[in-house]
Amino acid sequence: MLDRTNLRRLGEPLYRDVCTVFQNTGSGPVLVGGRYGLGSKDFTPVMVKAVFDNLRGSAPKNHFTVGITDDVSHTSLDLGADIDAAPRHGEVQILGLGATAP
Prior knowledge:
There is one protein chain. By secondary structure, this protein is of the alpha/beta class. The chain has one domain: Rossmann fold (3-Layer(aba) Sandwich), CATH 3.40.50. The chain has a three-stranded parallel beta sheet with strand order 1-2-3, covered by helices on one side. A two-stranded antiparallel sheet has the order 4-5.
């Protein structure tokens, strides 16, 4: 889950709401939450990739930040190289990501 919000000690509002739903079930999915858009930064394709790369890891970082360098709590995800997300021939751009037009 991603929230565009300030840093929270126990998790972001959406993260806490979803955790509450699974709290009494005794089982459920692994829940990972993070923040984006801090400092009014845009959420770019390279940040999306960093989030998915984090989720693919053997132990995904929880309560992460993406898009800023957090030198206090060290929760930032590493960003890779820039991604060219410009639409190619036959594609339209949706939320900044390329998608094939029908």
